[in-house]
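step: validate -> pass
step: tokenize input -> pass
step: predict -> running
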Amino acid sequence: MKTSAINAALVVIIGLSWAGMAQGVERTVALSVDGMTCVSCPYMVEQSLKRLDGVVDARASMGTDAAEVTFDDDRVSVEALASATANAGFPSSVQGVTDHEG
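step: predict -> pass
step: emit ->
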């Protein structure tokens, strides 16, 4: 009886570990970002994106009026990324999405 309970517990633990490791496709989206007019604006855009669960990396540039965001598509959507920049005062639109091979 104790052995089957231990085996059942191990199956649950292994299953939870496996579920935690499952990830969606890692993608990179290029966003055109409006309103970046000073040197702190790209930082504010990056921080608004990095706060989202599922964002792996975010880089913004005032020189190109763009942001590049790498994200897990199971945890955050492209629409949520654009909303995050808009909510920070920097409306953005999607220029393209790239899937990472792996």
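step: describe -> The beta strands are 26-33, 55-61, 66-72, 92-99.
step: cleanup -> pass
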